[in-house]
Amino acid sequence: MWASSPHLVATVPARHRPQPPTPAAPHPREAGRGERRAVVRTVRTLPARWRVDAQGLSVSGATGSALVAYEAAAAKFRAWRVGAESQVALALRDAPGFVMALVLRAWMLLCSRDPARVQAARPIWAHAASLPVNEREVMHLAAIADVLADDYERDKARLARLLAHYPRDGLALQVVHAFDYLTGETEALHRRAADLLPMWNARLPGYPALLAMQGFGLQECGDFDRAEHLARAALALDAGDARACHVMAHVFEMSGRPREGLRWMAGHAPVWGSGTLVAEHAWWHVALYHLALGEPDEALAVYDVRLRDRDDLATLIDASSLLWRLQLEGRSVGDRWAALAARWAGHVEDRFCSFSDVHAMLAFVGAHDDVHMQGLLRSLERSQRSTGRHADSTRLLGLPACAALCAFGRGDDADAVARLAALPPLAHRLGGSQAQRDVLRLTSRSARQRLAARAPACAGERVLNDEPA
């Protein structure tokens, strides 16, 4: 396909690569009331060949009003607020050939663990690929083609090259940050944002998100003080940035400050608790604080009110993790496992994301659902015999971790401990956050404790002391 060619950038006709004659105006969301009217008026009256976005980057196929809607969509997507899709729809209704609006719509689908959402981006990409484009848009479309071809490493490398040429492309940064998270590139989560920071300033739209992205990466690497500083700085610039609230939630969890976390999250609930893409996940963090404080009933109440009846993959993952942690703490969860396993059943044959596979297995083991446990194991065995991204992660991590969970579920703690201990040091490549992946460490600890309780005192001491750091 043409968008996959590395030579395309050089061959894009010059007439399709207009350069803006004026610097970018302040973003409407961050401008004052009078400035806001001036910005909108300026954007709407620029000649079409000179259309630029709020970062000063040229765009193809936009009208003035479509560009205003696009900027509104981009702002919501950056801050993890709902409503971006409706703004993209407005932009495309006014300008069906607006390439970056199509690109944004595609990326909103592709930054997902759900294979159905990812494939839904294909016709959007095909339409955008048929339109006149500039150099930067070619690079975006080629990166989208990489994801559709299931080549996430090539996608990240291509987006890195795009950012080297266009360091203020906030969408490209947001997307590569998402794929670093999905593929467990912990160091890159903060390094990419840090490298671009000198090319940005606080007046640019997306600057708070840049700070929050760097902050999230830093807390994943254990630098909680700097992460908290950046998250608070982001919120000082944009009090509605749910992404920065998410960083704070992780900081409190990973630095062992659950009571402070509960207070902070309660005080900022109007920011993250409604109208955001992260509300349910943030409630998961609140439940973890309750667990850390020895309040399992409160954690279970969060599950029942906030997570129990959701079917999206992100919430299914959090639901599995929370019920598993509750069970490890000795709290009965009743028939909740069966209902959750039923919602996971449709994903047995996804063969797309090992992180999802592990959380599906948590639900099947918790529900004693042997049919779906065995079905998922067979699916993963087929996947590991094939080629591609999921096959590689299944061989390395997904299948061994799921087999360990099955051993734990049937009470074979020695086998569970051995399998979990055998996971390679790069288990972070499962993706997700340290807080999410911690469920495997907690399972290993519980299995060791059960072994120690059944073994003679000296053997139990040996088993516990063998636990890896």
Task: Sum this structure up briefly.
With 469 residues, the protein is mainly α. The chain is 67% helix and 0% strand.
* Strand segment count: 0
Question: What is the helix/strand order?
Answer: HHHHHHHHHHHHHHHHHHHHHHHHHH
Question: Tally the helices: what do you get?
Answer: 26
Structural class given helices, strands, pairing? mainly alpha
Tell me the span between the first and last alpha carbons: 47 Å
Largest sheet descriptor: none
Shape: globular
Radius of gyration: 23 Å
Beta-strand percent range: under 5%
Kindly state the mean pLDDT as a whole number? Answer: 87
Low-confidence stretches: 1-46, 457-469
Fraction of residues in helix: 55-70%
Tell me what the structure shows.
It is built from 26 helices and no strands. The chain is mainly alpha-helical and 469 residues long. Among the domains are: 1-162, no CATH class; 310-469. α18 runs antiparallel to α19 (313-328) and α21 runs antiparallel to α22 (370-384). The protein is globular. The chain starts with 7 loop residues before the first helix and ends with a helix.
Feature tags:
469 residues; 26 helices; disordered C terminus
Summarize the helices and strands and which ones pair or pack:
Elements: H1 8-11, H2 33-45, H3 64-78, H4 84-94, H5 99-110, H6 115-120, H7 122-129, H8 135-148, H9 152-165, H10 170-182, H11 186-196, H12 207-220, H13 224-237, H14 242-254, H15 258-267, H16 269-272, H17 279-292, H18 296-307, H19 313-328, H20 336-344, H21 354-366, H22 370-384, H23 389-409, H24 413-421, H25 434-454, H26 457-465
Helix pairs in contact: 2-3, 3-4, 3-5, 4-5, 5-7, 5-8, 7-8, 8-9, 9-10, 10-11, 11-12, 12-13, 12-14, 13-14, 14-15, 14-17, 15-17, 17-18, 17-19, 18-19, 19-20, 19-21, 19-25, 20-21, 21-22, 21-23, 22-23, 23-24, 24-25, 25-26
